[in-house]
Every structure is written in C-alpha cells, then in structure tokens.
Amino acid sequence: MTPAARAFLLTDSADEALAEAAEMLQLDLVRVEPESSLPGSIDSHASARAIVVTTDDPSLLRAIVERAGARRIPVILAGKNDVAYRRAIEFRVDEWYLAPATPLEISWRIRSALARVATQALALSQRIDAAEYEEMLYDPLTGMPTLPVMLERTRGMIKDRGEAIVYYLNFVRYSKIEEIYGWEKLDQVLETTSAAVREFLDSRSLGTTRMMVGFANDDDFIFLQIPDKGKAVPTDMQITEIGKQLQHFVGNRLEEVHGEDVSSLFDIYIGSSQVYYTPKIRFERLMYRGVREAANAARSVEQRERVRRTAALRGVLHSGEVYVDFHPIVLAETGEIFGYEALARGVPRGLRSPEVMFEVAAEADLVWELSRLCRARALSGAKNLLRGDQLLFVNVDPHDFADPGFGVLDSIDPRRIVLEITERTAIKDYPRFRERLRSFRERGFRFAVDDAGSGYAGLGSIANLEPDFIKLDISLINSIDTNFIKQNLVETMVGFAKEQGAMVIAEGIERAEELETVKRLGVPLVQGFLLHHPARADVHAGAHAAGD
Q: Distance between CA atoms of 536 and 319, rounded to whole angstroms?
C-alpha cells in the first residue's frame, strides 16, 4: 500500500535553521533551486504546506505570492533588511522574518502564517456561503425575492383561499437591449422595470399580490395573485386588459428614464394559469407546474404577436409608414456637426425600433423591401438637411448589396454618402463582398463599419472591409469613464484606425464624463443624446410605395 504524501515546506533557501524549523513542525524540507523555478513548482507540488522565500526580485516575489494565494498556501519572506520588510507589506506576504534567524523563531513565523491563512480561508468560505445563500433568496439587482422564498411566504394564504393565479411576465427583447447596450444598461433597465411593475400592481385592485423573480439574476418576473375571499378571479379578457395596461405603463416609464430607443425595444407578453390547492399534491410541485403553464401561455402570446407584427409590417410597406430620425455625428473637440446618421422607424409603436422592424422583416423575408423604403426616406429627408460638407450615414445590411434595386442611390452626390454596414448576419464570402464594395467606392461612396467590438464586427471584419469610418459599439462607450479595460480597448482601436487612414466614431455618448473620456483617448467623432437629440424629418405623409 502506497503511503500518503507527507506535507512539506517549499523553499529556495539552503539555511540549516530552516530545516530544523521544518522538523519542529513535522514537515519535510524540499529545496528548489534556482529561485526562478519556484512559481512553477507551487503548482506541481500539491502537498506543499508553506513557502519560505529569500528572493529580492519584486517580480518574482509577486508571482510567488499570486500562485500561492490561488492555492491558499502561506508565503513567508526571509529578508535581509528593512527593504524586504516594506516589500513584504507591499505584496501582502503572510509573514516575514529577518534572516538569519533561529529555528524556533522561524517555526513560530511559519506556524503564525499557517494560522492566518486558515482563519482567512474560513472567513472567505463563510462569506461565500452567506452570499450564495442570500442570492438564492433574493435577486441582488431588484431586491425581489425568488420563487422558492415566496412559495413559503404564501403557502398558508393559498391553502386558506384554495386557489391562486400565476402571472408570468416575459420581456422578450431584453436580450436585445443587452446585446446592443451591454449588461450595465440592461441592469439599469431591469431596475426601472421592476419598480414600475410593482408600482402598477400597487395601484390596481388585484387582491393580495406577490412579486418575485423565478431565479436570481433572471430577467423574467412572476407575480402571484391570491384573490380576496368572495371575489371572482379575473377572466381571460380582464387579464389581457391588465397586460395592455402594464405594457403602456412600463413602456412610458422606460421612455421617461431611458429614452425612446430603449422603450421601443420593450415588449411584454403575459401568460397566466390558475392553480387550485389540493392536499393530495405536494404544494411546491403544484405551484411549479402552475409557473410552467403560465410561461408556456406567455410563449403562445408571443407567437400570436409575431403574426400580428408581420401583418403590421406588410401594412407599413404598403402605405410607406416609415419616418427617419437624423442623429447628428459631431466633432468631439468643437461640437461642430460632421454628418448625420439616418435611422428609419416604423410609425406603429410596435415597429418603432429599427432593430425590431428589421427583425420582423427577416422573419418574413421582407428585408429588401424594407431596406429600399428606409433608404428612400433617408435620401429624401437629407436633401434639405445637409449643409456644406456634411455627410449622410445610411445603414445597410451586407445582403442589401445583392439586391438588384440597391444601386439606386443617386439622388444625392455619392461623395456625401457613407454606407454604414450593419452586420446582422455574418459575411461569409469576403472576396466577393469586397468586389461589390469596390464598384461602389469607384462611384464615390465611403464606408463605415457599425458596432465595432460587438457581434460579427470584430477586427477581422474591419481588416477585410477597409472602412473609412469605424463606429464603436455603444456597449464599449457606456460607463467608459469608470472602466479601464474599455478605455484600453478604445485607445487601441483609435491607434489602429489612424494607421489604416480611418476615423473612429464613438456611439451612445449620454454623459459628460463619457464624452471627456473618449476625447482624452483621441476619438475624433462622437454621437449620442448628450450632444444632440435627433432632428426628426417626418417624411411619411401620404402613402408611398416601397420602391419610391
């Protein structure tokens, strides 16, 4: 039978006193030379109990402390002078002593380090356990309890009433908000949403209601309605009306706090199920089944809404009900308008967001028809908008270049138009696509890559397309003043663009701190609500064919 590995002391020192101290602690002594190999030895010696080092190389000491800390192994520095003492404090070494020292003192220092690490490990474990337990009970963002907690709190009331209604709120486009703006923005939106939903419920006569999340850090909400005794439960028609009122209430609140671009991505589908209490079925199982039924009902509503939105889009294409918001792009240093980005929106509220409108078009195979209408509106509205050398940025999808009707862009001098390539889908054949771009370049058009740093628009795509402008994704700009990683990425992109003869545009500037940060990083062009609210050119009066 192989004996168990005996714990040992890892060191770069040949001091005999260290060997005696290890013996006092009933540890074997392993000498590692040269000292530069010590960081790698930490990972390969699983039975190491403590590490005694003598190195005066700061980089090496830092590497040893980091490696040892990851394995919860204490580090003791055997220093030669006060400089070593200060270094021990700087790098948070667990213990230190002035060498040479007696075996007794060394053993005491090692024992002290072992005790300190053990205490820290216990405290850390307790903090982790407490955090995990708290997260199981409450959502850290909204403060709402999770479903298991609420089941315990409502058990007696549901048994007493004999029934409950489960409502499942499915916010179908919140993943799109996170994709466009980043998780920080979605967290803010979820906080606003949860507060608005709770305010709505408090203002309605729904009997006893309990708001919760299914799981911590989830973005779908659940609420239980326990009807008051003697009152009838809501009918399907009443539930549908509640959903419409909630959609309107939360949508308006989101627009007030976060603007129309965010609120236009808000869609809520409510599913419900009625649960009747019976002692023959375990209470938790009964309620979880009710939640699943409500979630399935919400998905059924979503399917019906897809059909309705497709019909609404066909109506938009038939009547030409699209208007354009022109978002100014300005010089960061002076605030002078450099150009405008044309963002087309559907007149119906459900198609107000360009992302939603083109998503519906893709599902219905109507992208070319919608793109033609949007481009026509953009070019028509820009004729009376552009001044001097100002440019017009028009969003196009890579698939648009294959549209036989795409070449009709001659109502404005091509040298004034920047085709902003929005990659909703990956470009699979770059040689062929570059050939198509070349023919447009020869006519005077310029190109921009949209949402750089997100989705398909990576460095490889930028290198292949050789754009004149690189638009940084809004998720990179949001809160950039407090995020050094984002700052480093943007600074790198600015340098890269200069080398390629391109200009960087920072999208989504909403705060003065963000503007000052991107200016400091050398970004020449900026865009966002802090600088200008979009000037809407309402050019949708009257019915127009999609090919106008």
A: 19
